[in-house]
Amino acid sequence: MADHTVKAFDEDITRLRGLIAEMGGLAEVAIQEALDAMVRGDEELGDRVVARDKKIDALETEVDKLAVRIIALRAPMADDLREVIAALKIAGVVERIGDYSKNIAKRVHMIEGRDRFEPLTLLPAMGDLAGEMVHDVLTAYAARDPGLAREVIATDAKVDAFYNSIFRNLVSHMVENPATISSAAQLLFVARNLERIGDHATNVAEMVHFAATGSYPPEEDRP
Length: 223
Prior knowledge:
mainly alpha, Methane Monooxygenase Hydroxylase, Chain G, domain 1, Phosphate-specific transport system accessory protein PhoU, PhoU_dom, PhoU, phosphate transport
């Protein structure tokens, strides 16, 4: 009976990890496709990103239900309990990352005169970096790798630097070209959403570190 209980618990944890991985994969694709749609002005692709966000939401609901079931039926303790709680929190954060990608996709049709905006050449690079953070933090979660989690946290400074550069560029552009203020403001929102994705990946990294070690990263490692 004890062996059966342990096996059932391991199967539940494996399922939990699989759901998180699936959510993360969808979130990574959403970031990339939202930026592609933004740069090309591809409203159809943007609409697909928005529609597919419902799948991420549904997976989060599955994670919530499974985590509650594990806690209720298995009464996990110590490391096992940290694992379940971390999965619950991570699912919520990944769902928010999906929402930020959806918000970017919704703004595709609001940008006019794309050729006039230099930041449109910077946003994909910023998006790639944010997407790498999401990918790496989910790899860290799957491997229970606190070292990789700390690397993700360190990368957030680069995303912040991108945001600051784009912000300054767009503000200057708006001052010099008042007619573009509306479109430039939308691009500012896009950059802000990418910056928030980096912040959320950092939050996940801190949870991964806690789940793996029982402690949060040293203060000097955090942004």
